[in-house]
Design brief:
By secondary structure, the protein is of the alpha/beta class. It has a domain at 98-172 and 187-343: Alpha-Beta Complex (2-enoyl-CoA Hydratase, Chain A, domain 1). The protein has helices at residues 12-45, 74-83, 130-149, 185-188, 196-199, 219-224, 253-261, 263-272, 278-284, 294-310, 326-342, and strands at 103-107, 114-119, 159-164, 208-212, 215-217, 229-233, 237-239, 275-277, 289-291. The strands form two sheets. A six-stranded mixed β-sheet has the order 1-2-3-4-6-9, with helices on both faces. α7 (253-261) crosses α8 (263-272). The longest helix has 34 residues, at 12-45. It starts with 11 loop residues before the first helix and ends in an 11-residue tail after the last helix. Belongs to the enoyl-CoA hydratase/isomerase family.
Length: 353
C-alpha cells in the first residue's frame, strides 16, 4: 500500500474541538465519580482502602491518571533519594556534552515552517541510551531558546517531524549502553534520560508527525506514540519485545497504547510479544498512512506536518490528550529500572551475565 491522498481537512477544526470538549467532559465525569467513591470509602471504612500492588501501571481508572498527588509517593521518594546522594553527586555534576552530535534539528524554509527533529546515531541504529536522550533534551532547550529569540513568524515552526537517520527510526533501548566519563547512577536511570526525552516532545506544543522506518521495537514504538500522527514504511514493522525480556512499558506506553487500539487489543499486543507488519499496525489504528520506502515515508511525514500546520484548527490536536501523570511516569521508570537490575532483560537464548 502506497501513500495516497489523505482525508480532507475542511472539517478537521470542528472534529478536533469536539474531541477536546468530549475529553474534558469525560475527565470531569471520571473525577466526580472518583470523588464520590472516595467519600463513600471514607464514610464506610474510616480510611481509603489501599490499592493493590501494580495497579498504578494498569490502564484503568484506579486513581486519577491526570493529577499529581500532593503528598508524593514511595516511587518519587526513591528517585529523589537516588538523585540527592553521594553516588549521584547530589545532582550537581554529571557527564558533560559529547563531541559527536546524536540529534539534530532543522527548520524548513517552507510556508508554514516545519521543525525537523532527527535521531542521528547511525552506528547504534538510533538505539536509546543516556547520551542520545540527553542530547535530545539539549536540542529541546535550543528549540525553546530559538522561540524566545525569533522575531519573525516565518521562523516559528507550526508543526514538527520526528525521524531517524539511517534505516531505522529506533529499534528500542540500548541494553549495553556505554557510560560516559562522569556519569552518575541517576543519569543512567530511565527516569532521568531514556523516558524523559520522549515526554519532552510534548513541550513543542505543535502537531508532531513521526516517520517510522525499519524495525520499531519497544522504546521505538513508545516514542512514536508520543506524536500526533505516524507514517510507516511498507517494509517497516513494530514489535514490543518486552515480555520475552522481562521488561515493562515506559514513556507512557501503558497509557498511550490502550488509547490508540483499545484496552483488549493493547493487552493482546503486549502479551503475545509478536512482530506486526505495516498493514497490521495501520489496521490497529496506530499509524495513519503507509509509504513505499524510507525516502517516501519521510517525505509523506513532512507533507502531513505541513498540512496540519496550514490549518489553525489542526494545531489544536495537541490539546486532545489530557495532561500526563507524573505518578505513572515515575512508576514506569521504577519498573524498568527494577527489571534491569533483577529481571531477565536479555535476548532469548542468552544467559544474563
Amino acid at each position: 500500500m502506497v501513500a495516497g491522498k489523505g482525508a480532507p481537512f475542511q472539517n478537521y477544526e470542528y472534529l478536533i474541538r469536539a474531541e477536546i470538549d468530549a475529553r474534558r467532559r469525560q475527565i470531569a465525569d471520571a473525577n466526580d465519580q472518583l470523588e464520590q467513591e472516595s467519600h463513600k470509602d471514607l464514610k464506610d471504612n474510616g480510611s481509603r482502602k489501599r490499592l493493590l500492588i501494580g495497579t498504578g501501571l494498569l490502564p484503568s481508572q484506579y486513581h486519577r491518571m491526570t493529577d499529581v498527588n500532593d503528598v508524593g509517593s514511595y516511587t518519587r521518594a526513591y528517585w529523589w533519594g537516588m538523585a540527592h546522594s553521594w553516588q549521584s553527586n547530589f545532582g550537581l555534576e554529571g557527564f558533560s556534552e559529547v563531541e559527536e552530535t546524536k540529534c539534530r534539528a532543522l527548520l524548513s524554509p517552507t510556508s508554514p515552517p516545519v521543525m525537523l527533529l532527527e535521531l542521528n546515531s547511525k552506528h547504534t541504529f538510533n538505539m536509546l541510551d543516556p547520551v542520545l536522550c540527553t542530547d535530545f533534551m539539549m536540542m529541546m532547550d535550543a528549540y525553546h531558546m530559538h522561540l524566545t529569540r525569533s522575531t519573525s513568524r516565518s521562523h516559528t515552526p507550526l508543526a514538527a517531524v520526528l525521524q531517524g537517520a539511517g534505516p531505522h527510526l529506533c529499534p528500542g533501548g540500548n541494553h549495553h549502553p556505554v557510560a560516559p566519563a562522569g556519569a552518575t547512577p541517576f543519569q543512567m536511570a530511565s527516569v532521568a534520560a531514556n523516558s524523559l526525552f520522549a515526554l519532552r516532545m510534548k513541550e513543542l506544543c505543535i502537531p508532531t508527525v513521526v516517520a517510522i522506518t525499519g524495525n520499531a521495537i519497544g522504546g521505538g514504538v513508545a516514542v512514536s506514540l508520543n506524536g500526533t500522527e505516524r507514517v510507516i514504511a511498507q517494509n517497516g514493522s513494530a514489535a514490543f519485545g518486552n515480555l520475552s525480556r522481562g521488561a515493562c512499558p515506559i514513556m507512557m506506553l501503558s497509557k498511550h497504547l490502550p488509547q490508540h487500539v483499545g484496552l483488549t487489543a493493547a493487552i493482546d499486543i503486549y502479551l503475545t510479544d509478536s512482530t506486526f507488519s505495516a498493514n497490521a499496525v495501520q489496521k490497529a489504528g496506530m499509524v495513519s498512512r503507509i509509504a513505499s520506502d524510507i525516502r517516501t515515508t519521510k517525505a509523506t511525514a513532512l507533507a502531513m506536518a505541513r498540512k496540519l500546520a496550514s490549518f489553525p484548527g489542526a494545531r489544536l490536536a495537541v490539546m486532545v490528550q489530557p495532561p500526563l501523570s507524573a505518578e505513572r511516569y515515575e512508576d514506569e521508570a521504577y519498573g524498568i529500572y527494577t527489571c534491569s537490575r533483577l529481571g531477565q532483560m536479555h535476548f532469548p537464548g542468552q544467559a544474563k551475565a
